[in-house]
Amino acid sequence: MSRVVEVLPMLVGLWLLLVGMYGAATTRHLVHLVVCVSILHSGAWLLLLGVGHRPGVTAPTLDEDVGGRVLADPVVQALAVTDVVVGAAVTALLIALTFRVKRRFGELDPREVHVLRG
User: Fold this and answer.
1) Is the dihedral angle over the CA atoms 39, 44, 45, 47 positive or is it negative?
2) 57-67 in b/e burial notation, b at 16+ Cβ within 10 A?
3) Running DSSP on this structure, what letter comes out for residue 115?
4) 52, 66, 68, 70: least CB-packed within 10 angstroms?
5) pTM metric for this prediction
């Protein structure tokens, strides 16, 4: 059972990454693209948590005596919190840009917005 708990977040995170990448590559709607990027971000976040998880470790706190116990790496925890904040900011920015494209061009299909073509 312990092995399942260790491997399952990594598998689910990888699956979310693949679903998000596939959706972002095949979408024909900007709102769907924002959702796919958010799903991709969730997969990356879950992979980060899966990598940082070690069974039998204690959370590092300043107010308790360590007493020979193995402590979790606080860098992974800090990266996870930072990843959540960055993901929320990117999603908000993409939603704002989607509203601006809809207001300016009246379309949410990237194929119909001719300014977005390279």
Assistant:
1) positive
2) eeeeeeeeeee
3) G
4) 68
5) 0.79
Quick one: which of 49, 46, 51 has its CA closest to 38? 46
Enumerate the H helices of 1-118 as residue ranges.
2-26, 30-52, 74-105
The widest CA-to-CA distance across the chain, in whole angstroms, is 64
Q: What's the pLDDT score for residue 66?
A: 64
CA distance 59 to 63: 11
Select from 33, 45, 50 the least CA-distant residue to 87: 45
Residue 85: pLDDT band (50, 70, 90) is very high
Radius of gyration of the chain (CA): 20
pLDDT tens, position by position, 55-75 = 777 777 766 666 777 777 778
**If we measure between CA atoms, which residue out of 4, 9, 20 comes closest to residue 87?**
20
